[in-house]
Amino acid sequence: MPDAIFDHPRVARVYDPLDPDRSDLDAYVDLAGELGAHRVLDVGCGTGTLACRLALQGIEVLGVDPAAASVDVARGKPGADRVEWVVGTAADVAADPSQRDRFDLATMTANVAQVFLTDEDWLENLRAIHACLRPGGHLAFETRKPEDRAWERWTKEQTRQAVVIPGEGLVEEWVQVTKVDGPFVTFESPTIFHSDGERIESTSTLRFRTEAELLASLDDAGFVDVDVWDLPHAPQKGWLVVAATAAQGLEDS
Question: What letter does residue 76 receive in the DSSP assignment?
Fold first, then answer.
């Protein structure tokens, strides 16, 4: 099940106003242009900001996310009528024969790649994405570098914000780590609506994989030509990983 922060209708509606700067998506828009992508699969599309940006540029986009409330918000954005929306996972998309070998590029932005906690779930997701990409297609995703120890900055004191949002009034949120267990980091992120006092709790866990683990999992899923770049919007703190599926001639050989 999606975390409450993504699948609660009231929280989903304030997700974008609480995080209005989405310059982190610029790298994916630029990459789609550089690759000449005509069809993009946005895995974990959330409230659809990237999907709609790409669609408004004339790219055919399928946005998929298990959080129905977030997808509902996405459907109301400019350009949303040009996007195909699916409430589900990459595996659900891959199960549809019409979606296999269809896409030029697949993306996983923000925390998406880190929500898959077990090796089995992560590999299943990668294999599903691989099945949806055409020969010579690409996957691009970001993930935080474990050595940066980002979770040490995830405290109420350092992350708390309170924003006045039209229709809701003052909304407060923060992130507070509650447990670190090897590569698994668990944190609370409540959302508090001061207009009526409603407090919606959310607890999430992310997995911080090493570069070696990422490369091995991509190889197991059948990806080739993997590039690991410094994350443009967070240099030294994360990676932007770009991997390809084998071209048609290589697959047939």
Answer: T
DSSP SS3 for 215:
helix
Mean pLDDT within 188-212: 97
- What confidence tens digit (pLDDT) does each residue in 118-153 have? 999 999 999 999 999 999 999 999 999 999 999 999
Q: Which residues pair with 177 in a beta bridge?
A: 187
Under 8 Å between Cβ of 185 and 203: no
Least Cα distance to 64 among 108, 19, 31 occurs for 108
Q: How confident is the model at residue 6 (pLDDT cuts 50, 70, 90)?
A: confident
Domain residue spans of the chain:
4-146+209-252, 148-206
Q: Quick one: CA dihedral 80, 84, 90, 92, positive or negative? A: positive
Sheet holding 39-43, edge to edge: 83-87, 60-65, 39-43, 103-108, 133-144, 238-244, 224-230
Give the SS3 label for residue 168.
coil
The CATH class of 4-146+209-252 is alpha beta
Would the pLDDT of 249 be above 70?
no
For residues 253 and 250, give the distance between their C-alpha atoms in angstroms, rounded to a whole number.
Answer: 5
Q: Provide the angle, in degrees to the nearest 10, between the axes of the packed helices 26-35 and 49-56.
A: 40
Contact status, residue 65 vs residue 44, Cβ threshold 8 Å: yes
Q: Report phi then psi at 191, rounded to 5.
A: -120, 125
Reported as a pLDDT band with limits 50, 70 and 90, residue 248 is: confident
